[in-house]
Amino acid sequence: MAAEPYLLVAIILFAIGAVGVLVRRNAIIIFLCIELMLNAVNLAFVTFARIQHNLDGQVFVFFVMIVAAAEVAVGLALIVALFRKKATLAVDEINLMKW
């Protein structure tokens, strides 16, 4: 099978994630959209690895997934901590850096 359908799906997933990050104001939705973008890039890596008959892209995706799992743990912990402190998940209302 050709690589174009896989790359088209990766482009669509990345675009949906990018629009979600730019448009939405809920911290959890933004977090999920970032994960969607990460998975789109992983799909592109696997597709290019298959085209070149090389396992380097798949190994790289494996390590990216490990980092993403750690990111999910830390990110969700931060979101829960912010919700407990501010009682909201709207990123416009979360401004902890102000005096």
Could you name the CATH class?
Mainly Alpha
CATH topology: Helix Hairpins
Rg, rounded, reads: 17 Å
The appropriate CATH architecture is Orthogonal Bundle
Looking at the structure, what is the overall shape? elongated
Q: What's the total count of β strands?
A: 0
Q: Please write the string of helix (H) and strand (E) elements.
A: HHH
Q: Portion of residues in helices?
A: over 70%
Structural class: mainly alpha
Give unreliable regions as ranges.
none
Total DSSP helices: 3
How many domains? The number is 1
The first-to-last residue Cα distance is 57 Å
Mean pLDDT: 91
Strand content: under 5%
Give the biggest beta sheet: none
Please explain how this structure is put together.
- With 99 residues, the chain is mostly helical.
- The protein has a single domain (4-86), classed as Orthogonal Bundle (Helix Hairpins), CATH 1.10.287.
- The chain is 77% helix and 0% strand.
- It has helices at residues 4-23, 27-51, 56-86.
- The longest helix has 31 residues, at 56-86.
- The N and C termini lie far apart (57 Å).
- The mean pLDDT is 91.
Give the SSE layout.
Elements: H1 4-23, H2 27-51, H3 56-86
